[in-house]
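Support request, please re-run this one:
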Amino acid sequence: MTVPMDVQPRAPGARPEAAKRSLRPRDAASIMLLDRSRENVRVLMGRRNKAHVFMPDLHVFPGGRRDATDHRLPWGGDIHPAVLERLQAACGQHATQSRLRALALAALRELHEEANIAIGGPKTSGNSLLPFLPDLTNLRYMARAITPPGHPRRFDTHFFAVFTDEAGIEPTDIRDSRELEDLRWIDVNDASAVTMPDITGIILGDLRASLQADASLPFGGPVPFYSTRHGRFVRDLL
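Re-run finished. Output below.
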């Protein structure tokens, strides 16, 4: 399930009663798959089906809610220590490494479900939940954003990034799914061809700034955190 978010206090079409109660955000993960084989870096995005109640017809990065089974997924290469450290700072010392790793695993699972892209090695006999063994080695932790109160659904979404060449992915090997349509590669410097949620555009801007600062996207860099505080949209650094 793809998780776009809006920075506005109220979501378009939100029920009036939704604004009166504060839903607890659910853990989610999204991934920015980056193709740097051309002059300008491109990021993979897809459009949510118009039948979706939540943010239909908007282009987003692949991603979705963390499933209860994600922490049980076997994995190959482990998450980078600097990335794990940033995740720990974001989620608090009470968060177990299993939960933190499950966020990264959820991002790769959703990428496979929504774009038919598997980042990892061949399936092992003990891995019955995915047809491949996820490799977390090259994931960068890029951003965190919590859906503001007043929406019919709320998510605490962690955004990761990975380059196609590091992951052994061919950019043409993508396929639309029931969750995402019109999958396409978008120039990070010009996303005018698609319509996206405000928060997606903001995080895309953060990605662009990070690439300009260091095109290799070093592990463990500062992570912008977007949330709502006293009715105001705020940005912190983790």
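Residues 97-115 form the longest helix (19 residues). The chain has one domain: 16-237.
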